[in-house]
């Protein structure tokens, strides 16, 4: 328990310093600066919490040889709770794009490809390169093709037979298969809530859902996680049908409710349980409706971290792997956990800094291309 408290204290202090540092970073888009959504800052906290979680998991992996959850429920939930809230954010944002609207499915699909795939492909190429080095460049073509296909649908583990390939991403890519399944389900969701049929897009959506059924049997998809996306629908429905409720949000009492339920969710032993989802859902609904949790989620520093949160989430495993498995900056043979914990601020700083680079070089160019296309389409209308 003492280690848990120390890790949390160091994480909080590190986030305070990163917030100050990122307030000076000129990476926020005009769109992000112009809106007051607390979700932008929330993303920064969520992504860095996942880094902290995998930092702890890495220690036990290097010491015991097993990639398992930390014994501490709080440290384990520093991974599970952010993922849960990320799924809710996705549900909230994309349900808001389709509810009572006429979605342009082509634009939505292209935007997701441009937003998600360039960085993912970049990371997979790095994983492939390291895996080749670790296997002595002995290439098994048939095996690589099969494994590449699995990575293409976000269920990959080994590459070229290197069993630790998935550790290079800290296994974080597993969430992308849920994200993509949700995107493909949107025509079905829109048909249900809007009372309209969407032709070939609805057929495609239904076909993808049918094809995904075997993945449930093999354990690649856990159906109950869909509840997290559905919880994200609630704030959209409240805004549309119960706007008077918005006057409640923004008071200190709403911030207290958000914080209490979030903390409560962190102490629930069973991650991704329905109970935890519902508890976290209360906090999320309040935040999605505008609660900034005592002003914490108004910070431009956290918003900047939120801007690069996808890079933080997808590349932090690479930083952890390079530091502790390639360069071996810490000796795990007899190494004290307390000394290892001292590396947490360094890891958070390195991951955040490198994520700015990948955001600017890989993510942002595709975001700008997407923005130009959307703008030109609106002008043409």
What fraction of residues sit in β-strands?
A: under 5%
Tally of strands:
0
Low-confidence stretches: 374-381
Overall pLDDT confidence: 93
First-to-last CA distance: 60 Å
What is the helix fraction of residues, given as a range?
over 70%
Number of helices: 16
Query: What sequence of helices (H) and strands (E) makes up the elements?
Result: HHHHHHHHHHHHHHHH
The SS-based structural class is: mainly alpha
Feature tags:
single chain, about 375 residues, mainly alpha, globular, disordered C terminus
Helix/strand layout:
Elements: H1 2-22, H2 30-34, H3 38-64, H4 73-98, H5 105-134, H6 141-152, H7 174-194, H8 199-217, H9 226-231, H10 233-241, H11 252-266, H12 274-288, H13 300-307, H14 309-326, H15 337-341, H16 344-380
């Amino acid at each position: 328990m003492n280690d848990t408290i120390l890790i949390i204290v160091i994480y909080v202090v590190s986030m305070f310093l990163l917030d100050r540092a990122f307030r000076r970073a000129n990476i926020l888009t005009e769109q992000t600066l112009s809106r007051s959504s607390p979700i932008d800052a929330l993303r920064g906290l969520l992504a860095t919490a996942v880094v902290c979680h995998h930092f702890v998991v890495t220690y036990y992996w290097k010491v015991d040889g097993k990639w398992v959850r930390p014994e501490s429920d709080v440290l384990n939930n520093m991974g599970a709770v952010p993922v849960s809230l990320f799924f809710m954010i996705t549900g909230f944002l994309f349900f808001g794009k389709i509810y009572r609207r006429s979605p342009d499915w082509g634009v939505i699909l292209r935007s997701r490809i441009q937003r998600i795939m360039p960085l993912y492909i970049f990371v997979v190429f790095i994983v492939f390169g390291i895996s080749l080095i670790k296997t002595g460049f002995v290439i098994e073509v048939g095996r690589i093709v099969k494994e590449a296909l699995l990575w293409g649908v976000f269920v990959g583990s080994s590459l070229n037979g290197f069993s630790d390939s998935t550790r290079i991403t800290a296994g974080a890519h597993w969430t992308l298969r849920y994200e993509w399944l949700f995107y493909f389900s949107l025509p079905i969701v829109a048909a249900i809530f809007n009372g309209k049929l969407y032709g070939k897009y609805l057929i495609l959506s239904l076909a993808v859902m049918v094809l995904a059924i075997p993945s449930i049997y093999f354990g690649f998809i856990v159906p109950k996680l869909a509840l997290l996306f559905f919880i994200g629908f609630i704030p959209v429905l409240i805004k549309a049908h119960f706007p008077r409720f918005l006057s409640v949000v923004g008071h200190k009492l709403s911030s207290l409710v958000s914080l209490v339920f979030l903390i409560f969710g962190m102490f629930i032993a069973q991650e991704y349980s329905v109970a935890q989802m519902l508890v976290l859902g209360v906090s999320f609904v309040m935040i999605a409706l505008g609660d900034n949790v005592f002003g914490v989620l108004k910070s431009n520093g956290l918003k900047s971290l939120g801007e690069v949160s996808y890079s933080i989430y997808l590349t932090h495993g690479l930083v952890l792997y390079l530091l502790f498995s390639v360069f071996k900056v810490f000796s795990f043979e007899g190494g004290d956990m307390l000394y290892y914990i001292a590396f947490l601020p360094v890891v958070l700083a390195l991951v955040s800094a490198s994520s700015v680079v990948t955001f600017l070089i890989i993510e942002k160019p595709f975001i700008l291309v997407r923005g130009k296309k959307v703008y030109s389409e609106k002008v043409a209308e």
